Amino acid sequence: MDQALNGSMTADLAIWFCTLRVERQHGNAAPDFITQRIQDLGRANDVTGVAAWKAVGARLIKLNIPTTIH
Questions:
Q1: CA 19/CA 17 separation, integer angstroms
Q2: In the chain, N or C: fewer CB atoms in 10 Å?
Q3: Span 13-63, pLDDT tens digits
Q4: Packing angle between helix 30-43 and helix 3-26, nearest 10 degrees?
Q5: 3-state class (DSSP) for residue 68
Q6: How open is the CA angle 48-49-53, to the nearest 5 degrees?
Q7: What is the pTM assigned to this prediction?
Q8: CA 10 to chain CA centroid, nearest Å
Q9: What is the C-alpha separation between 50 and 64, in angstroms, rounded?
Q10: Is the Cβ–Cβ distance between 31 and 68 less than 8 Å?
């Protein structure tokens, strides 16, 4: 398997794992938790962290959990 493809597959699976873990730990408060992480990382100018947590938020939405992630 191409190493670049393998790397992106691993990153995607890691984001899904994080999404499921956050949903399990925070339940209905998961969207608020993710929003807070994005805001905190944004204030810290952590562009990579913001992008990662936005990806988590996008996957949470795919799980059909009502949310208002910013």
A1: 5
A2: N
A3: 999 999 999 999 999 999 999 999 999 999 999 999 999 999 999 999 998
A4: 120
A5: coil
A6: 120
A7: 0.79
A8: 14
A9: 22
A10: yes
